Amino acid sequence: MAGGGTAARVLGRAGQGARAVGWGRPLGPEETLGLLEASVVHREGALLALSKPPGLPVLGRPGELSLTLLLPALRRRLGLPAELHVVKAPTRECSGVVLLSSCHRATEQIQQFFTDARRRGRYPATYCAVTVGVPAEAEGEIRAGLCWQQQGDTTVVVPVPAPGRRSLARKEVKSTLTRYRVLGAAGGCALLQLQPRTAFPEQLPVHLTLLLCPALGDHQHSSRVGRVLGVPFLLPPEAAPTRTQVLDDELLSRLGLSPQQLRRLPLHIHLQQLVLPQGPLCAPPPPPFLRTLRRLGLPQHQEP
Known about the structure:
Elements: H1 2-14, E1 20-21, E2 26-27, H2 29-38, E3 40-44, E4 47-52, H3 67-78, E5 85-88, E6 95-101, H4 104-119, E7 125-132, E8 139-151, E9 154-160, H5 165-169, E10 174-186, E11 189-196, H6 203-210, E12 225-228, E13 231-234, H7 249-255, E14 269-276, E15 279-282, H8 287-296
Helix pairs in contact: 1-3, 2-3
């Protein structure tokens, strides 16, 4: 009883800063917990997989709702005997497959499987994304050096066009690669399949801006893509401060959004599939993502 009371108090405090994003408003702790419970896609032995909503961080700031904070209550709701920990999860703003484990040995085996797969040129994570803009090529690769850069009071991820060997050796810059394929396009927007071959914070949204097709709901990097007479071009990060994504009136109308609702539009990048030794784990996109696909006339059933 005491443990349950402690969890309730923690959830109550966290609710003050909850930012798990639904279609138009933040979700509270109980709503988010119910959403996680209903989104379980796999449960076998020590492993549990569920689909995370966009906007929910794995580790939050003090007083902020996070996946880790909710795990003890989720374990009790599901009747699991052991504590859960995160093996693999998408970043804060992305939705998709979260792999949890109650056994550290099982976690080590999964991590080793991921390492071995990458060495063989097989990459376990596949994402889908809705973009504002359609890539010029139906499929291809996005290669870029990425690094952290201080801008004012914050640090942001920026591309480095031609990183030198010394900066790469010092790990000041990381060489990154994402493969993409266009699954469908309509009305100037596209549905892309993304397979990152490297891992760096915010790699996917930054790579999509380099493709001149920022992700829908990217309020962090999309300002780096400017337009002149409808033709997109890339702005340097220092000339493109963070702001709410700008969409034209026609696209807002198709999405059924007012300008006031735009700032709450979630990032449309979803971790759709994670390959494990037992086979692939898949999670369907969340309702806001599916609603966008319907409204834009993009494919709603994608094979990873």
